[in-house]
Amino acid sequence: MNISIVGTGYVGLVSGACFAELGASVWCIDSDKDKIEGLNNGVIPIYEPGLEDLVKRNTKAGRLFFSTDLTESVNDVEMLFIAVGTPPGEDGSADLSHVIDVARTIGRNLQKYLLVVTKSTVPVGSSRLVKGAIEEELAKRGVHVEFDVASNPEFLKEGAAIDDFMKPDRVVVGVESERARELMTRLYAPMLLSNFRVIFMDIPSAEMTKYAANAMLATRISFINEIANLCGKVGADVAMVRKGIGSDSRIGSKFLYPGPGFGGSCFPKDVKALIKTGRDHDSPVTLLESVEAINERQKKVLFGKFNDYYDSATRGRRAAIWGLSYKPGTDDMREAPSLTLISQLLEAGCIVKAYDPQAMGEARKRLGDSIELATDIYDAVEGADVLFHVTEWKEYRMPDWERVRSLMKTPLLIDGRGVFNQADLEGITYLKIG
User: Fold this and answer.
1) Residue 206 lies in a domain
2) Catalytic status, residue 350
3) Are 10 and 325 in contact, with CB atoms under 8 Å apart?
4) Are 208 and 174 in contact (CB under 8 A)?
5) From the candidates 18, 28, 231, 266, which is the catalytic residue?
6) Around 144, how many Cα atoms within 13 Å sit in the side-chain half-sphere?
7) CA–CA distance, 304 with 357 (Å, rounded to integer)
8) Residue 270 and residue 350 in contact, taking contact as beta carbons nearer than 8 Å
């Protein structure tokens, strides 16, 4: 099967490499010439465990190709996936301009049947807009060419994306014709043979499923953060509470870890977009409005603990940060809680030094010289008045606490993830969420 994927960001590149691994011939298309040149030379623009090997193996095998020319590939493939960015606007709505640009390019060049699949996260009704844009361009040309649209939202977790693609909880496919269903069934035949769930539905339901899933997970995170903050006030231990409620099979324990708020490219953007959709259709989703507000407050909790400890006498103090990416397993800092914390620390007149196993390059791009970047976890804490544990990378789990204590000016640890054992921290003041 020959397919094209437009967009070599996180979704497009991972999907393209995985489809190639399953045996398809895949053309990954992007307008960024430097990115495509890099990919053709084996340079992977994002960090994702296992992705570099997957890309190189399938490129060498002649199943994975990279190009800037969308017009050339439109008529050489059976299916074309749109996986371009849909960044949030100021009002929270998803910016569909890149999606529609791709649709118009398809319409201007289409000569034979094509199945056009939206893989970008798009609001309900977007596939209808894609279809309309293609039809409009075909009408301008005065030609009639059959095509179908479908929706195939991604459910990939950064840091575990390849496993999520190859061993999915489910694959959601929205179609409106039997021909489109047959093509998508052929594409996902390896999943069906392995008894993974491929769920077919109508297109609006598929588009909504993506948003609803992320909104539910975000809701669980904000819920446990509210409970954690209350536990801190009443003397309860949120770790014990989490075990207690997570043991209920109706609830489960996933996404019930308290922390400094959710970030990344999906949850914040998708919650905002669903809120905007509700307002546009006179059906406000007030629960999600609260989820978003809780999350914004939660990102300020760590600084609040630091500020309270020093009774607001923070100017000139040195702050060490372990973890800059929004989660472990990625270098992605979009909407990361670390950015809010760093902004607050700098505004309070603190000197900040941080370390992250993967996000140092991204931090330099985003923060410039406003903070110091450490060479390792111990370099970060030297002379520090406080250590913030923000992202739960595994290499932070068992440090030499005696060495940490001796290097710090004031041995104060504020744990945003609640993963450390108080008994191991002799001589260190330990504060956590909940």
Assistant:
1) no
2) no
3) no
4) no
5) 266
6) 0
7) 26
8) no
Question: Rounded to an integer, what distance in angstroms lies between the CA atom of residue 359 and that of residue 355?
Answer: 8
Residues 293 and 331 placed together within one structural domain of the fold: no
Domain boundary among 273, 298, 323: 298
Instruction: Give the tokens for residue 334.
Output: 């979009």
Q: How far is CA 4 from CA 36, 38, 116, 185, in A?
A: 14, 19, 10, 17
- Phi/psi of residue 296, nearest 5 degrees: -65, -40
**The pair of three-digit structure tokens given for residue 356, joined into one six-digit string:** 């992250």
Q: Report the predicted TM-score, pTM, of the whole model to 2 decimal places.
A: 0.90
pLDDT tens by residue, the chain, 434 residues: 999 999 999 999 999 999 999 999 999 999 999 999 999 999 999 999 999 999 999 999 999 999 999 998 899 999 999 999 988 887 888 889 999 999 999 999 999 999 999 999 898 999 999 999 999 999 999 999 999 999 999 999 989 999 999 998 899 999 999 999 999 999 998 877 777 789 999 999 999 999 999 999 999 999 999 999 999 999 999 999 999 999 999 999 999 999 999 999 889 999 999 999 999 999 999 999 999 999 999 999 999 999 999 999 999 999 999 999 999 999 999 999 999 999 999 999 999 999 999 999 999 999 999 999 999 999 999 999 999 999 999 999 999 999 999 999 999 999 999 999 999 999 999 999 98
Where is the domain boundary, 172, 201, 230?
Answer: 201
Domain count for the chain? 3
Domain assignment of residue 356, given as a range: 301-432
Contact 357, 393 (CB under 8 A): yes
Q: How does DSSP assign 359-418, residue by residue?
A: -HHHHHHHHTTSSEE-SSHHHHHTT-SEEEE-S--GGGSS--HHHHHHH-SS-EEEESS-
Residues 72 and 22 in one domain: yes
Q: Is residue 424 one of the residues assigned to a domain?
A: yes
Residues 334, 279 within the same domain: no
Residues 428, 369 within the same domain: yes
